[in-house]
Amino acid sequence: MIDFRYYLSIFLRRLHWFMLLAGLGIAAGVTLALSLPPSYVSSVRLYVESSQIPGELAAPTVNVPARQRLQILQSNLLTRANLLDIANQVKPFPEQEKMSPDDILTAMRDKTTIALAGGRNDATMMNLSFEAASGQPAAAVVNAYLDRLLAADQENRTWRATQTQEFFQQEVTRLGQAMDDQSAKIVAFKQAHADALPDSVDFRRNQQVQLQERLNQAEREMTLLQDQRKRMVEVFESTGRVEGYEAANRTPEQVELDNLRKQLSDALLVYSPSNPRVQLLQRRIAQMQERATASTGETGNDTGPKSLMDVQLAEIDGRLGALETQRTDVQQKIEELTSSLQRTSANAIALEGLQRDYSNVQNQYNQATQRLASASAGERIELLSRGQRVSVIEQPSVPNAPSKPNRVLIAGAGSAGGIIAGLALIVLLEILNTTARRPSDIVRKLGVTPLVTIPYIPSPNEMVRRQGLRIAVMLAVIIAVPVAIYAVHSLYQPLDLIAARLMDRFGIRG
User: Fold this and answer.
1) Which of 204-208, 295-299, 380-384, 475-479 has the lowest mean pLDDT?
2) Are 361 and 129 in contact (CB under 8 A)?
């Protein structure tokens, strides 16, 4: 069975310790709650707005993820130069003139709270707030933050879009010049090898075939003329007659003589010179020659056929010379065509390499042109603020009531802490006290049962002294705690800064 009366007596006996710690906690909580200065918090909510132009119609130039964009803006916003500039402009701290730049920077960062929210399928948002001693400076600082953040976002987007557009513009110019240079190389190569280009190989091969046919025709004509000349000489040497000599200028004996000579010429084609028929024709030609000479009064020195023979031979020789010249020219052209055809393969490989380089540059130029068009459209979108941008959900406003501190919570926490500490101290003292205070303690420790127990009875003076000492200690603690807290707040450092440093050290954000 639990002896509640016994434990109540113990509590009443240790009541002064309980009252001491409870009073200390209550005094500290109430004093701290009343002494902490009010804090006004102004905030603004931002989010990353999607592009107003569909990506299928015009691809955006700036493709930074939303969360990464807000993180970059946050880093740029909390730079030393920005924070000091805003602090000097707004002056959010009451005694800012006495603070060093490092202290101002630390206070600005401590009073600024930035929270990012959003997931894969959720909108990415930023909650930006600032805490100050009054509402107007807090709102002014948040408005300055907002202006700089939106300006930085706009500048960053337009700068990226402009840089992208300028880059592809330079690429188009560079690749266009490369195409011109490569075209000039191709033109110079074609001009230097105009007679051995692959695009005219079929024409030159046909020309080579035609020239070969002309060469063969010329050689055939030369062969025929040479045979004709040889035959004419042989006929003239054998018959003394020239084909084509005018019959009107000849006598019947000469006509007969020509017939005999023709018969001799035909016979020589069949028989040998020792053949009796041939010898007979030769004798008859000799006799007819004498008769023809006698009938014409000539002495046998007739130069008519001889002159005609010379004319015909000269004509044949002229035609042979012309054909020889033609054959030489045709052979030279055939050799030139053969040489050009032999060089065509190497020229084709070299020209193919030049054209391949030109095609590669042209493909790069076409791609750069397309990307330049996309970059120009993206730049226009960013200049008109139609792309992905940071927008404001809730504009900052001047707070009418302080957001901090929660005085009731602080006072209640101090009181609860003092009460718990008092109870804990009583429990600890009882655990450490091993003296016998009840008959049951005597029975348990000595093993005997007393007939009667007489408690310690203090004198009235002793009771007055003890009670006075307890009241004096309690009053001293209750008065000393607020005085000490006020002294720290006034002489050393404001309590809000001390609380902020403690929360930062323990990783707690208010």
Assistant:
1) 295-299
2) no
Q: How far apart, in whole angstroms, are the C-alpha atoms of residue 435 and residue 422?
A: 22
Cβ-based neighbours of 285, under 8 Å, separated by 6 or more: 239, 257, 260, 261, 264
The pLDDT mean for the chain works out to 77
In DSSP terms, 46 is beta-bridged to 126, 392
Complete DSSP assignment for 258-318: HHHHHHHHHHHHHS-TTSHHHHHHHHHHHHHHHHHHHHHT--S---HHHHHHHHHHHHHHH
Q: Which residues contact 160 (CB under 8 A, 6 or more apart)?
A: 61, 62, 382
Can you read off the two tokens belonging to residue 374?
A: 């996309």
What pLDDT score does 315 carry? Answer: 82
Residue 195 burial by CB count (10 A; 0-12/13-18/19+): exposed, middle or buried? middle
d(CA 199, CA 102): 79
Joined together, the tokens standing for residue 333 give 């052209």
In DSSP terms, which residues pair with 209 in a beta bridge?
none
- Give the strand pairing for 389-394 and 40-49: antiparallel
Model pLDDT for residues 210-240, shown as the tens digit of each residue: 888 988 888 888 888 888 888 878 777 776 6
Question: HSE-up of 302 (CA within 13 Å, CB side)?
Answer: 21
Cross-strand bridge partners of residue 45: 127, 394
- Among 259, 250, 321, CA closest to 285: 259
